Amino acid sequence: MNLIGMLKREVETHSVLQTKWLKERNIRMSFDDLILWLSQEYFVSIGFVDWFLLVAANTRDQNAKIVLVENIWEELGEGNISETHVSILTSFLEQLNFDFSKHQILPETKTYLDKMKSVIDLGFFYGLGALGPANEYLLKLEYSQIANAYHQLKREFNLPEGKFFQVNLDADEGHSKRLFDLIETVCITEESKKQVIEGNRLALDAREDFYLGLSRLDEGKRYLTK
């Protein structure tokens, strides 16, 4: 199996896609579940931009910088502030009557963000593994599950169009291919391949912390209803 095939397989078979919270929401998602997931993903969307900028700053390869900046430029709405992914998510939450005055980051979400930053700080190739397969490609698989659950919820409660999901799914498809192509181009030594693989694994493991926080709140609610 080539490097790209190996990276994709590690994402597709990683336990993060089989977390209890995700699997249960594939069967049934409540409105509160949706708000919780979106409210925590908001912090990830903010960190996502910074991660790309840091990885781009970690290389002198101008072709690599171009690819990374293209992705981040699209993430930033190509200069249109209302079309940035964070703005679209903010607008979506507002349409769902989310109270931003009570918005708080879960400790596990913060742990995930801190771990991602530490992976990126290891070096350029670690960062590529963390951003490409373990973010752009992983999010396509994650978001499709949440989007499907949302469409069921939307029909039941007459909720707004899920532009946030469509924008991300469309972007992640192109972004992940762009990053996989970059990885294939620049990872020509055994050491660089090793670092990309390790960055991918570390970032996938870190993402599990995100769902640990959601699951912890789940268990708390179940305890209170007993």
Query: What is the residue-averaged pLDDT?
Result: 91
The amount of helix comes to over 70%
Q: Please tally the helical runs, counting DSSP H or I stretches of 4 or more residues.
A: 9
**What count of structural domains?**
1
Main beta-sheet strand count, sense and barrel state: none
Q: In percent terms, what proportion of residues is strand? A: under 5%
CATH-assigned homologous superfamily:
Heme oxygenase-like
> How do the SSEs run, as a string of H and E?
HHHHHHHHH
The quaternary structure here is single chain
Number of strands: 0
Shape: globular
Report the CATH architecture: Up-down Bundle
Q: Using only CA atoms, what is the Rg?
A: 18 Å
Low-confidence stretches: none
Q: What is the CATH top level name?
A: Mainly Alpha
Secondary structure class reads mainly alpha
Termini gap: 50 Å
The third-level CATH topology is Heme Oxygenase, Chain A
Please describe what this structure looks like.
The protein has 9 helices and no strands. The model has no long low-confidence stretch (mean pLDDT about 90). Helix content is about 80%, strand content about 0%. The protein has about 230 residues and is mainly α. The longest helix is centred in the C-terminal third of the chain and has 35 residues, at about 190-225.
